[in-house]
Write a structure and sequence with these properties.
Layout (H helix, E strand, L loop, with lengths): L7 H7 L11 E6 L3 E7 L19 H20 L7 E13 L8 E12 L2 E10 L2 E14 L2
Antiparallel strand pairs: 1-2, 2-4, 3-6, 4-5, 5-6
């Protein structure tokens, strides 16, 4: 396997998220201003599996969308060439056409892909897809904006 474009140490410098909500383990491919491909290793040790669902653990759909948003945020930070500080966050402003096609379970490697569709007035629209073993698990159009917080 080739070295990741961004390893976990670089991701931690870019995203404000920490355990248990950091949902990107590495970036495999990145084309600035265009697309990203990242990876989330899904472990049985994830805290949400204790209650979702104890007899058949499934990663919650909202967390698969959050993982896609975190990958999209990394794409935006890299594309703009900025190192975000503690005062910079990327917020969801919209999610359209979210579809869940297969469950994401412990042991899966969730491949996160996001492509910039357009950027206008401080809002970036991404087409995003999460897959396991080449099969689509989740897809959506995400709209995000970057803001400074006090």
């Amino acid at each position: 396997m080739t070295a990741p474009v961004l390893d976990i140490h670089k991701i931690l410098r870019k995203l404000p998220h920490r355990y248990p909500i950091l949902l990107v383990d590495r970036v495999l491919e990145l084309e600035k201003d265009r697309r990203i491909k990242a990876l989330k290793n899904v472990s049985i040790n994830e805290p949400f599996f204790a209650g979702h669902f104890p007899s058949r653990p499934v990663m919650p759909g909202v967390l698969t969308l959050e993982a896609l948003a975190q990958a999209a945020a990394l794409l935006s930070f890299e594309s703009m060439g900025i190192e975000p500080g503690d005062d910079t966050v990327v917020y969801f402003v919209g999610i359209d056409g979210a579809r869940f096609k297969r469950p994401v379970e412990p042991g899966d490697q969730l491949i996160l892909e996001a492509t910039i569709e357009r950027a206008r007035a401080g809002i970036v629209k991404y087409r995003a897809r999460g897959s396991v073993d080449g099969e689509t698990a989740v897809e959506a159009e995400l709209m995000c904006t970057m803001r400074k917080v006090a």
